[in-house]
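testing teh design pipeline on a random one, pls ignore if ur not involved
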């Protein structure tokens, strides 16, 4: 009997973790949803219909190590990793208003935790015949878009968030080159870019869902 495909979705504050997890579950994946803080508290109150919820802190190495051990014991591999955990702060702050500790916290969650999670789960991903890592990116981290005066978020001043997402874009590009000879592929995926999708409502539009599924189904393209 063929083993089910195993997916892990991370969540820390953008509220999209359950949506991503449900999309994958509807495609037959056995889904683990790792969440922290208020996100975990809210998810505990909802009916996840069989999605496995774990209390996780992806900024903590021991927490990631325990997660790796759990997946190894329960499933022996990992097929899909969606790095969705992120937080946002510092909206509208000018350079003299930036709080360095807040920027550090944001980078730790939005950037360094992605590196930590990929490192910690790389061995399990390598055991999949065709694994995929999806790093949830943002238009606010795309330099060319932020230079475009016609882009609806071009004037958003979220220095810490935008620079962390820009760093994530580069990380994905570099890792795609490294992973190209292997059975693992990696992609950036921006779910918030259609007119009726905003960070304020945190809605994943039908077109975005279809694009994500196509990306996973056609897991042959590199970044």
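output:
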């Amino acid at each position: 009997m063929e083993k089910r495909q195993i997916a892990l979705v991370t969540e820390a504050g953008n509220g999209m973790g359950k949506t991503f997890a449900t999309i994958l579950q509807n495609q037959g994946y056995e889904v683990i949803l790792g969440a922290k803080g208020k996100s975990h508290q809210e998810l505990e109150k909802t009916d996840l219909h069989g999605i496995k919820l774990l209390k996780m802190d992806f900024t903590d190495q021991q927490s990631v190590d325990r997660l790796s051990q759990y997946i190894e014991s329960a499933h022996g591999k990992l097929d899909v990793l969606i790095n969705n955990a992120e937080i946002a702060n510092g909206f509208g702050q000018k350079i003299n208003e930036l709080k360095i500790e807040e920027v550090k916290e944001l980078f730790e969650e939005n950037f360094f935790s992605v590196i930590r999670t990929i490192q910690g789960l790389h061995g399990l991903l390598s055991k999949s015949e065709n694994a995929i890592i999806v790093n949830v990116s943002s238009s606010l981290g795309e330099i060319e878009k932020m230079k475009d005066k016609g882009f609806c978020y071009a004037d958003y001043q979220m220095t810490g968030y935008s620079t962390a997402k820009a760093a994530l874009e580069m990380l994905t590009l570099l890792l795609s080159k490294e992973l190209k000879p292997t059975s693992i592929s990696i992609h950036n995926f921006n779910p918030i870019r259609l007119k009726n999708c905003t960070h304020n409502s945190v809605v994943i539009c039908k077109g975005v869902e279809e694009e994500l599924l196509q990306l996973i189904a056609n897991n042959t393209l590199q970044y």
